[in-house]
Specification:
Radius of gyration: 51 Å
Distance between the termini: 6 Å
Helix content: over 70%
Shape: elongated
Strand order of the largest sheet: 1-2
Number of strands: 4
Number of helices: 12
Number of domains: 2
Largest sheet: 2 strands, antiparallel
Order of helices and strands: EEEHHHHHHHHHHHHE
Length: 437
Amino acid sequence: MFGWGRRRRGGGAAAGAEAPAAGGEPAQAEVTTLGGVGSVLDGIEEARGRALVAGAAAIRDKAGPRLAELGRLAEHLAGDDLDADEFDRRLKSTVERGKAQVSGIIGEEARAEIPGVGTAEEAEELGARLNRTLKRSGDVLGRHSRIIHHFARRHVGGIKSALAGLKEDRDALQALIDEHARTRAASAAIRADAAAAAGMVEEARKKSARIAELESSLRSLEGEGALLEARAEKARASGEYAELRRARAGAERLAGEEEAAGREYRDWFTRISRPLGRYEHVSALDKESMALLRAMIDDPYGAVAAGNPGAAVGILEATKKGVLAGAVSVKDPAKAAQLLSEAAKKAAEIAGRKEEMARRRAEVEGRISRIDTGEVDAAESELGRNAAERRDAAERIARLRGEVAEAAGRIPRMAAGMEKALGEISPVRYSVRIENS
């Protein structure tokens, strides 16, 4: 389904898995699947466990005689008076105490039972037993080193030789235990990777199935959209809709005219903004008139009320009187007074234009409200819904395809990592195949 099958060469070996074998023949890789990785690891762990048990049993057979020899040497040390009669009384006590501790601890360890080896856990117990013997023996020899080396020199060589042999056995056993532990740790990591990869494969399979469902749904939506578009076009071809288009076009033209008129008046009004601004600071207008003055400064077109320009004209005339009387300071009073007179005329003119445009707007809106656009509106509403659903389906398909593509690139890399990890814990070369179904 996903095209993740690993390419194979050489009669079934994974690509790149061939390695020279005896006689120059290429080694064939054992092929397994993600689901079969667990069984492969079970076999590897079982084989490694058997190797550990067999090796530990052989080491136990060697360690037994060494421990017996160590026990015999401890008995000899315990029975040797070390010519203590020739020692000073205080020295004699110290030597005998040291001899007793060395021979006692080493003898105790040598006589302790050696665990049998039938399982990996018992092999680890044997390793712990040898570790304890070496540690306790080494510690007691270290504590009494000077006494033993000086007064029991004839016993030291044999004891050290026996302990050295036990250390070799312990080291060999520890190497087997470490290898077994490394195998188990690597196996756990590989199992986790295989489970994660299998989960990704299953998730990608579900996403691919969902993509197929969404693609089928998208095709249905596209067919429905074509029908809705035809229905909308038919509705738009009706006389009512043609009338609606004309009315809306008229409304747009009227809006353009209003915008142009406002822009023209605002541009012209900037010529008297200075005297108006200064009049604001010296006037004694009431609250309502002051609000109108500020509105005329900020938005002169909006401040001029259609059908009632008198208030705005009154403010302009009052500003003109203030200019002529010198109460409103300007650079050229005569010119400012002339512009204010023209502004008063403009205010009456713009009020008339606004009144006319309001009448025309009401007429157009009335025409639009009387036109029955229910069929067109319904068709376009359905068409909009259909388009939104198509976009949503297409976006979800694209997202899921990206996620599947990402998995298609990542899972083979995970399989290659598992192959490498398997090769590090097994002499058999494995190829992990990704199931395509």
